[in-house]
Amino acid sequence: MNQQKRHAILDRLTAAIPEPKTELCYGTPFELLIAVVLSAQATDKGVNKATARLFPAANTPKAILALGLEGLKEYIKTINLYNSKAAHIMTLCRQLLDRHGGEVPKTREELEALAGVGRKTANVILNTAFGMHTIAVDTHIFRVANRTGLAPGKTVREVERNLEKWVPVRHKRDVHHLLILHGRYTCVARKPRCPSCVIEDLCEYPDKTI
Predict the structure, then answer these.
(1) CATH 1.10.340.30 occupies which residues in the chain?
(2) Potential cystine with 149: which of 1, 66, 179, 208 (Cβ 3.0-4.6 Å)?
(3) Fold of 29-129
(4) How many angstroms separate the CA atoms of 153 and 192, rounded?
């Protein structure tokens, strides 16, 4: 795929989704961090249901620590892997207080040093909370990037590198959520909704559902 076509794809998606943003509910960088940690192998809808109960009761590192491990589990027990996630969150909260004065750090290295936070989570926080041009490649972005030909790669890291290289600056801030939303609602995993896709004629997927 050439750059002209890549730019056209992103321009059309931007026109179709003019304000792409996360579907996780949050009010502060810390709330977003907790929501993203909880979202691994879970749906945003499920996370939002849990955090709608959790955040009014505890939405700071100190307040979550005050709940205790078992208290935290009561709020998040509807989410997959809640036992390990609760343990990570408790450690993460202690780390934030000990190392960062309770604030969420703004560098990838500091974020990745926190319990339960990998590169993808760090990229989400940097992009969504702090407006940086980072791209967190999840299953939706990996699928869309490969299926369309926008930024093919055999690994998540390869797709991330290709997107960083080929996405123009004007789209860098929003491309993360743009591709997630396109993958979540149009370019779905089992049977992509090609007839209603705004980039169908630009997409290089050979098995379109037309």
Answers:
(1) 29-129
(2) 1
(3) Endonuclease III; domain 1 (1.10.340)
(4) 20
For residues 24 and 35, is the Cβ–Cβ distance under 8 A? yes
- Which residue in the list 5, 120, 172, 208 is annotated as catalytic? 120
Q: What is the pLDDT of residues 150-209, one digit of tens each?
A: 999 999 999 999 999 999 999 999 999 999 999 999 999 999 999 999 999 999 999 998
Are the C-beta atoms of residues 31 and 51 closer than 8 Å to each other? yes
Residue 153, token pair as written in the block: 């790669």
Identify the active-site residue in 138, 172, 207, 208: 138
What are the start and end residues of each CATH 1.10.1670.10 domain in the chain? Answer: 3-19+138-196
pLDDT for 199: 96
120 is catalytic: yes
> How far apart are alpha carbons 176 and 133 in whole angstroms?
9
What does the pLDDT read at residue 210?
79
| Mean pLDDT, residues 77-104 | 96
CATH, range 3-19+138-196: 1.10.1670.10
